[in-house]
Amino acid sequence: MTLEEILNLATVIPVLTVEDDARAGDLARALHAGGLKVVELTLRTPAALKAMHAMQDAAPDLVVGMGTIRTPDQARRATEEGAHFLVSPGLTPGLGEALAKTGIPALPGVATASEAMAAREQGFCALKFFPAEPAGGIAYLKALHGPLPDLVFCPTGGIGRETAPAYFALPNVACVGGSWIATGAMIEAGDWDAVTANARAAAQLK
Ligand code: 3PG
């Protein structure tokens, strides 16, 4: 799947941190039932890669990206394990090279105009704006559109269901990421009805 296809399918991208891969299948089904088609699973727990496989098995239509990619090795490993796309919180020249080499779509993280321009130089036109709220939020992204009209962003970090609609109103926002759809506590509690309800509300925001 191309990056463009993924961004077209994505509305809110739930950012998921899974401690226990035994919960991943139910989580995937709950998100899918709510109408979300693209998710980011963070590489922050020992269970992350197993959880990715479990999610892909449980909901074959779900596009499962691996997030929190910080090193070239992690980019390679997540790709070998079958991630559908990669997301990073920031970007270094080495990581950019590794992301490009994987051959799968990537959303590298940036927080400033200079970082966005450096990412563009490395060939990335769709970027994660992270951490969105602390880095300047809606006003900052709006200001980037004038000088950098060829870039689109997936703002993530500190965004919730109340603030997401204002991001979607910007011309340079392709999707919005956030952990509020399925928080760690909801996943741990197996509160799948709440996850589906949040997913359903989020799916209608774009
Ligand atoms: C991320 O990794 O993208 C963030 O931790 C998600 O940010 P949020 O928890 O503020 O939504």
Strand arrangement within the widest β-sheet reads 5-4-3-2-1-9
Strand content: 15-25%
- Which structural class best describes the helix and strand composition? alpha/beta
Q: What is the CA–CA distance across the termini?
A: 21 Å
Number of strands: 9
- What are the low-pLDDT stretches, counting only 5+ consecutive residues below 50? none
Q: Give, in order, the helices and strands.
A: HEHEHEHEHEEHEHEHEHH
Q: What's the CATH architecture?
A: Alpha-Beta Barrel
Fraction in helix: 40-55%
Largest sheet composition:
6 strands, parallel
Can you count the helices? Answer: 10
Ligand names: 3-phosphoglyceric acid
Structure description:
The chain is α/β, with parallel strands linked by helices and 206 residues long. It has a single domain, classed as Aldolase class I (TIM Barrel, Alpha-Beta Barrel). 43% of the residues lie in helices and 16% in strands. The protein has ten helices and nine strands. The chain has helices spanning 3-9, 24-33, 48-58, 72-80, 93-102, 113-121, 137-145, 164-168, 184-189, 192-203, and strands at residues 12-16, 38-42, 63-67, 85-87, 106-107, 109-110, 126-129, 152-155, 176-178. The strands form two sheets. A six-stranded parallel sheet has the order 5-4-3-2-1-9, sandwiched between helices. Strands 6-7-8 form a three-stranded parallel sheet. Helix 6 (113-121) links the parallel strand 6 (109-110) and strand 7. Helix 2 packs across helix 3 (48-58) and helix 4 runs parallel beside helix 5. The mean pLDDT is 98. 3-phosphoglyceric acid (3PG) binds next to strand 9. 3-phosphoglyceric acid (3PG) binds at residues 15, 42, 130, 156-159, 177-179.
